[in-house]
Amino acid sequence: MKQSLYDGKADVVFFLDEPVRSTGLCTESLLQEPFRLLVAPNHPLLQWEELLPEHFQGELFLLNEKGCTYRTLFERSLAMDGIDSSIHLEFSSAEAIKQCAMAGIGIAFLPEIAAATELERGEWIALPWAMPDLRVATQMLWHKEKWLSPAIEAFLETARTTLRP
Predict the structure, then answer these.
(1) N or C: which end of the chain has fewer CB within 10 A?
(2) Which residues form a coiled coil (predicted)?
């Protein structure tokens, strides 16, 4: 996506990632995106008041495709806690991950924004597991040297006022 800015194919891109640093792009972080581990309401991990790393051993994780930035961050976070994430199913669709988790197939790892509606309806439960080293933000990026039309400037301002808390 960043390459499309350099190639002039896009004026602005939105990126869900670790903070992007670039000398050729303007980057603006709009909001931090919390992530959750989500399970069906009858999942065995819900029996524990406090989860320990060993509770996750042998569990099936429902993850985005390899190469997805937040999957890489998640796997790194698990490794730091001594949790093996090698047992997983890989999906290209957040909706497929959601449906499998709600059906009790495994543990979904998704941004809270993608899980909010189903959480409110009680279709799944967020596990009490903190990942303080996982910092992901929704960011706007645009080419530093590109002229921004008044319409693009207005769009950027609308995005700022709409997406910032």
Answers:
(1) C
(2) none
Q: Token digits for 41?
A: 């309401």
Which CATH number do you get for residue 86? Answer: 3.40.190.10
CB-CB contact of 35 with 134 (8 Å): yes
Which structural domain, as residue segments, surrounds residue 22? Answer: 2-32+136-163
Encoded tokens for 45: 């991990």
Residue pair 111/14 in contact (Cβ under 8 Å)? The answer is: no
Contacts of 19 (CB under 8 A, 6+ apart): 27, 29, 135, 137, 139
Domain count within the chain: 2
What is the Cβ-side half-sphere exposure of residue 76, based on CA atoms within 13 angstroms? 13
Determine if the pTM surpasses 0.85: no
